[in-house]
Amino acid sequence: MLKKRQEKGSPVYMISVVSRILEVHPQTLRMYEKEGFVCPHRINRQRLYSDEDLERLNLVIKLTKDLGVNKAGVEIVLRMRKRIQAMQDEMAEMMDFLDSDVRRTFEKRLQKIFTEE
How many CA within 13 A on the CB side of residue 103? Predict the structure, then answer.
């Protein structure tokens, strides 16, 4: 019988594996942890990273290396992403309470807002 795939937040990757996946030195990962960009789980002083941690680290690497964003900029981007996710979760919860007709109208209005530039 196959085991169910781990949840995204489950810590499963050691630092050496993460450094190979993301193609960065393990010290870079330690630095990102020190700066507060990621907080891996620890078991017996060993860092274990989850899929969510990998996604977050990948974003940090793209921001810093590809786009030249500094530490303060990365902090702002991560904070804004967290707020946006919280608002999306809140909106999804609110949508559950709306009548289907009102819901469709509201979804169309939201889509129009987000597609305008």
Answer: 10
